[in-house]
Amino acid sequence: DKARDEKPDLLLLDVMMPQADGFDIARALHGDTATNNLPVIMITGIRKQMGPAFKFEPDADWLPVKTVLEKPVKPKVLLKAVEENISK
Asked: What does pTM read for this prediction?
């Protein structure tokens, strides 16, 4: 609702959040005509918990985000991803 109301230029999501799942939020945003063009960057440390074999990439159905970054994210890497996704 907040993304729909405030219309941000970009959204950073974590996979695991206290009250929500980043995967579900990304899919909900993608399915809403008011937010489906909102660039989303997913930041995650899930591979540390699930193991290195657990890998995922942006996908139009399962993970509709522009970029996936692995924690810990270096500031330069995050700023570059933000810049690239806002300029699209």
From this structure: 0.80
Q: Any idea of the CA torsion for 80, 82, 86, 88, to the nearest 10 degrees?
A: 50
Q: Which long-range contacts (CB under 8 A, 24 or more apart) does 8-12 make?
A: 8/38, 9/39, 9/86, 10/38, 10/39, 10/40, 10/41, 10/82, 10/85, 10/86, 11/38, 11/39, 11/40, 11/41, 12/40, 12/41, 12/43
CB contact at 8 A, 10 and 86: yes
Least confident of 27-31, 62-66, 74-78: 62-66
Checking phi first, is residue 7 left (phi over 0); if not, alpha (psi -120 to 50) or beta? left
Count other C-beta atoms under 10 Å from residue 85's C-beta: 19
| Both tokens assigned to 80 | 């570059």
